[in-house]
Sequence to fold (422 residues):
Amino acid sequence: MSDINSRGYANADALVSTDWVAKHGNDDGVRIVESNEDPLLYPSGHIPGAVEIDWAADLNDQLRRDYLDRDGFASLMSSKGISNDTTVVLYGDRSNWWACYALWIFQLFGHTNAKIMDGGRLKWEAEGRDLTREAPNVAAASYNAPERDDSVVRAFRDDVLTHIGISGQMIDVRSPEEYSGERLHMPDFPNEGALRGGHIPGAANVPWATAANEDGTFKDASALRDIYEGNAGLDSDDDVIVYCRIGERSSHTWFVLTNLLGYGNVKNYDGSWTEWGNSVGVPIEK
Amino acid sequence: MLEELDGLDRVERAQYLLELSDDFSEVPEAIATRPFPENRRVPKCESEAFVWAQDQDDGTLKFHYAVENPLGISARAMGVILDETLSGQPVDQVASVPPDIVHRIFGRQLSMGKGEGLAAMVEFSTYEARRRLQTR
Fold:
């Protein structure tokens, strides 16, 4: 894959290469963070010095369906050795799907100095780079978190209803089978299920992984524009809402639209289909 | 095993399962070689898991697994657990193991996609037992 700076991204600084991490991962002021779907991947071997943030155990409130609050985020950052001015570089499995989810939540607390390691864990391993099972000895850092601000990059159900009313642009990043309503969830797994199948009216279907190459890296800006503008009809001036099932896959698309294509107003509806497909009276298309 | 897992916190559970994953041994060549037949592939499993059930003289089954995705650590752990707990057990008991046991093994915070894939490994294995019961 070509050099990140040659791919035409609006904000190429949002990505770093595996080479960069190999050279700078242990620099003062840099913290490498792994975030995966598979809970066994980090303990099976991680980039030396990397800490883990678990999407479910660390980033979500364990009682309410919501993200951690100001104190929780500050405590998490402190425990991971991250201070307010730390450059956080996230990586993980599934083409950085979960890393993008973590990065998006970092934005709710204004930690904008966060980047994604292009290619994620797959590329690091494919390049034969070092992995260790040794947990890093991280000194607690001081972190002063602001109140969580949900107004900029997060959408709620009522925002989506308003968005439908103005025929706003929406991207459903789930699989075509989920979008069509053919598939809801597996029997015995009601945890993320929904009573109704289909999609939010007006949403275009662009599965999240369309933005990634086979090696886990992001496609270049030209290819991404073909996907989101040529095929899905978006424009960089649009207000866009993205969603999936619980808001994790759509974080990947949020990252692409916001950072790689430079869209100024993209929100992630993390209630997503598990809320919409269970809500009474909301409109659904199949 | 389940009782032991119930008493572990998230980190301890991951370590326990990781050690199991390290013990994974792939399906022997006497049973199957690459490319593995598609009819042995576990549906919905993105770790590209395959399952074989070998009939034993005593009427039980010996289970074998392959996991083609190099990042399929959990799938390999699941393969070890299923082999250790289902192989050699009465077929009717194997047939009745519910797929949602994966949440008791891996914890409730497993993602839906990962949970589906691992549950499909259980489902495929217990299907083999149910199939034997129907033909006996």
